[in-house]
Amino acid sequence: MMGEPSKQSKEAVISYIIQTQEEEMKRISYELHESVGQTLYSFYTGLQFIQSGITDNQLKRFAEEMEQSLERSIKEIQMVSVELHPPTLSTLGIYPALKSYAKQFTATFGIEVEIEEGGKEKKLPEGQNVTLFRVCQEALHNAAKYADTSFIKIIFTWEADCLKIEVKDFGKGFQIDEVQTQSFPGIQAMKERMHLAGGECIISSLVGEGTEVTMVLPLLNP
C-alpha cells in the first residue's frame, strides 16, 4: 500500500501546475497582442481611411461609432494581454513591469498607485519575477474589491540579501484573526506562491487604517 505523498512531492506538483499555467498564459498573451490585437488595429486604420471618403452624414456617424467600438476593443485586448503576462516582465523585470501595469490598473479602477524604489536593483530569474508580479497583482485586485480606497502605495526595497515589496492600500482594513483563508483563497494563494519561490508573504491589517501585503524574497549573492 502506497503512503501519503510527502510535502516536497506535493510542492513539486503545485509548482509544476503553476509553471504550466504561466507558460500557457504567456502564450495566450502573445497571441492576443500579436495576432488578434494587430488584426483589429488593421481594421481600425482601414475604417479610418474609409471614413475619410464618406460624405453621407448617416453613414459617417455609423462609421464613427464602429471606429470607437474597435478602439475600445483594442484597449480591452491590450489590458487582458497585460493581465495574463506583461511583455516587460520577461525583458525588463518586476519593477518596470509593475510600473507599467499600475497605469492600466489606475485607468481601469480609478485608484491611484504610487511606486517607490530604494536600493540597488538586481536581476531576478523569470520565475521569481512572475511570482512577485502575481502576488502584487492579487494584492491590487483585492484592494480594488474590498479596501474602499482611492490610493495604493507600493514600496520596493532592494537590500544586500533580499528584496522586500510592500503594498499598502490605506483602505478600511479588516480583522486578520476573523478571516479564514478558506473564505479568501487569494490570500492562501499569495502565501503559497511566495513559499514556493523561497520567500514569504506577510499580510497585516487594521480596521480603519488599511491592509499591507509584504513580500520578502531572499536574493542569491552573485
Automatic annotation (TrEMBL):
Signal peptide coordinates: none
Keywords: ATP-binding, Kinase, Nucleotide-binding, Phosphoprotein, Transferase, Two-component regulatory system
Domain of life: Bacteria
Signal transduction histidine kinase subgroup 3 dimerisation and phosphoacceptor domain ranges (all copies): 26-89
Keyword Phosphoprotein in annotation: yes
InterPro entries the UniProt entry points to: HATPase_C_sf, HATPase_dom, Sensor_HK_TwoCompSys, Sig_transdc_His_kin_sub3_dim/P
EC number: 2.7.13.3
Residue ranges of domain Histidine kinase/HSP90-like ATPase in the record: 129-219
Molecular function in Gene Ontology: kinase activity
Coiled coil: none
Ribosomal protein listed as a keyword: no
Group of enzyme by EC: transferase
Reactions that this protein is recorded to catalyse: ATP + protein L-histidine = ADP + protein N-phospho-L-histidine
Record's protein name: histidine kinase
Species annotation: Fictibacillus fluitans
